[in-house]
Amino acid sequence: MQFTATQIAGLLNGQIEGNADVSVSKLSKIEEGVPGSISFLSNPLYTQYLYGTQASIVIINKDFVLTAPVTATLIRVEKAEDAFSKLLEMYNEVKLNKKGISKLSFISESAAVGSDIYAGEFAFVGENAIIGNNVKIYPQVYIGDNAVIGDNTTLFAGVKIYSETQIGKNCIIHSGTVIGSDGFRFNPESDNKKVPQIGNVVIEDDVEIGANCAIDRATLGSTILRKGVKFDNLIHIAHNVEIGENTYFAAHGVVAGSTKIGKNCMFSGQVGIVGHLTVADNTIITAQSGISKSITKKGEVFMGSPAFDANKYRKSYIHFRNLDALVQRVDKIEKIQKETEIKQG
After folding, report:
1. For residues 297, 298, 303 and 304, what is the CA-based torsion angle, rounded to 10 degrees?
2. Residues tagged active-site
3. 275: domain CATH number?
4. Are residues 62 and 35 in the same domain?
5. Mean pLDDT, the chain, whole residue set
6. The pLDDT of residue 345
7. pLDDT band at residue 307 using 50, 70 and 90 as cut-offs
């Protein structure tokens, strides 16, 4: 799709300097601008690129003062970065605004399907599933029996939703993610016989889950992701875990079974949490940390494996780095002491 500078300025409430009729069809970084693209300048470190960019349109701040001629059409706004972000959102909405049901998809006759949905090639919707309005089901998505998908939710290509899973409104689930697979439970006292997993997964509204994540169903009851949870790629959530509202997980996070995590927590990459713990609201865990006991006080920052208070960890780390030197000093002192004892006979 193409848009003129006039149309874009109208959307952003901006002022045009240059050719108002120039049109663009794509977005670009200012240092990589090409004809037919639109970019922006907000960081002073990139000012030099404004005067040589090949982008057809550049969004700049109202108060930016030019020091040389510019070939691009300029659109001046209050905050260039915010305006460009708005354009990105609009561009994404247009790009992902798919509708229609492919003849190569399969939707069970007993499924209830809302209006304006998209179902791509080889998408599968099982018996008695409920699909809300404006849901996007990309090619090769599997939705099992009795699953519920809320309004405006997007399931990208290859997502697998097992039976009985409940997903709320305005959720985004990226390719390769599996929701509702069995929890990892076996009985060692009975020849490692598998323990049946008959619960489900409940995902509330406004949740985003990255690519290739695995969210296991509960043994009994539900594994729950509360409203506003955001997952990066490659996250594993075990059976009966509960993640509180607006909690964020960076890549490679692992939470073992039956752990309860509070609201507004932030977990950096490769954090591991053992089972049957509780983590208080507003907790921050740094990268590669291992949580082996419950965190009961809100708002604390933890680091290390096993993790403890981040400030104490940083102080301790100074000693970790100097440990070899300390050992050498002790060895030297012991040697001197031993020699002194021999001389004193």
Report:
1. 40
2. 239
3. 2.160.10.10
4. yes
5. 93
6. 65
7. confident
